[in-house]
Amino acid sequence: MASIRSSNKPFKICKVFECNSLTRNTYCKDHEHIAVEKERKRYKNYNVSRDPVLIKFYNSKEWRALRDYIMAVNYFLCIGCSVPGTKPVMADVVDHVVPVLVDWSLRLDPSNCQPLCHACHNTKTEKDKKQYKIKKSRKIYF
């Protein structure tokens, strides 16, 4: 009987100089804290350029509840990839049909939300930037 492997990824050497430990990830168990720290730093730098009002909204209990509801109602499937006869694609983002920067009042409207996979979300975001002429530094004013 064949043994069941936890991952099909091949082993490779840890990315830290002179560490010869084998791992399926970038870093071995002894150095995985480096990856966590890099991700924390990347996210902090990303948030510096974002509007604090948006950060607060996307961290709110109301948005998280709506996001979970939209995903559950749509069975966690991307509606951008849902073509009859094709394999379903799992969604990992809940997107606003009309961006929050365009119409703030629709931010918690379930009919303005849709589950998308990462690829569909990136495509739609680029389309929205052109359509609504959204600039990265745009702030929300009430």
Number of strands: 4
Q: Tally the helices: what do you get?
A: 4
Q: How many individual domains? A: 2
Low-confidence stretches: none
Class from helix and strand fractions: mainly alpha
Span between termini: 65 Å
- Percent of residues in β-strands: 5-15%
In which range does the helix fraction lie? 25-40%
**Main β-sheet, spatial strand arrangement:** 1-2
Shape: extended
Average pLDDT for all residues: 89
**Roughly how many Å is the radius of gyration?**
20 Å
What string, H for helix and E for strand, traces the elements in order?
A: EEHHHEEH
Label this structure with key terms.
142 residues; mainly alpha; two-stranded antiparallel ribbon; 4 strands
What do these coordinates show?
The protein is mainly alpha-helical and 142 residues long. It folds into 2 domains: 20-49, no CATH class; 51-132. It contains 4 helices and 4 strands; from the N terminus they run ββαααββα. The chain has helices at residues 32-48, 52-58, 61-73, 118-132, and strands at 12-13, 22-23, 93-96, 113-116. Strands 1-2 form a two-stranded antiparallel sheet. The chain is extended.
Topology diagram in text:
Blueprint lengths: L11 E2 L8 E2 L8 H17 L3 H7 L2 H13 L19 E4 L16 E4 L1 H15 L10
Antiparallel strand pairs: 1-2, 3-4
